[in-house]
Design a protein that fits this description.
Structural class: alpha+beta
Largest sheet: 3 strands, mixed
Number of helices: 14
Distance between the termini: 66 Å
Shape: elongated
Number of strands: 9
Strand content: 5-15%
Amino acid sequence: MRTRITAIGYVLALTIFILFSSSLCEAGTDELDREIKLADKVSEQVEKQWDRVTDPVRVARVTLLLSRLTPFTERDLSYEVRLVEEKRPNAFALPGGRIYMTTGMLEFCRSDDEIASILAHELVHTDRKHGMIQSSRNQRLTLGALAVIIATGGSGAAPILANLAQVAIMNSYSKDLEREADTEGLNILSQSGYEPAGAVTVMERLQEEEMKRPYVDPGIYADHPKTKDRVRSLEDIIREKGWPLERKKALRLLRVQTSEEGGSILLSIDGKLLWRAPKVEGAIELMNKAAGSLDKYLQMETSPYDISIQETHGQKALRVGLGVIAYQKDLLPGMPSLEEFRENILLSLNRARMIHPVADYNR
């Protein structure tokens, strides 16, 4: 009996090896079919635990965001994102192009840029078969095990499916796979027109959430990178590529606005009044120019010391970083001083940073 089992096992292993090693086109098709069937089995387990969201507005939102990302993947899969009801923020990818996102993650993200960054990261995981690779490394998802799952329709393979689900749901990938997902995810974000900074800001807040939870022994996942290390890595990748790191766009903070109220032109940041001018000739032009300069030069990363009043071209001017916001000579009668304007800008910057305090803005 032992000899027979060994022979059967050898034939099965050889058959699977041949299937995986045949011509690229045929092997790719067969392997993809196995991936999708495996994903279906794991999805059954996932959707027993969490209810799928059917709200058309929320589903359409994440589906539209994903559709902008998928043209930049390596494989031509039927990529799909499914929302599930769960208050904790999480997202994970299954083999074959399937991504899950919890309602908690959708609500946790402050902008489409942040949601897209999560989707892009998970898209790389499923596009590059990271779940299969990691499960194989854990020595619980061998080629033979895959054959058993497919041949038996999933019966008797609960531990194997549980391991694949655990890798996905817990995002328990090793450092090299996470680095690839971060790097290629940023590339996809940039190519699709989203702000790469969204990947940094959402990870910074997840780091803050992580700090609130008790430490859990990572066990076999000890090689999984810490969130704070991933934040640093994302920042480094963005800088290496020469992209600007502008958190405010992804966070929807430090938004500059001009408006009219009674006989005044108002300049505000995030709904808080900064500066006021009487509605006279030249006021609208002055305030719009100041608003445009502020929007360009005032960033979450701006040092308070870079918001200063100094002589520029022989004129007293309020500067933010490299930009001039307003000259003393341009102030209209009855307008607050540049000093008061500067103090209000500093207050606005401080308020924005208090909303997103975990970032290392001085790095």
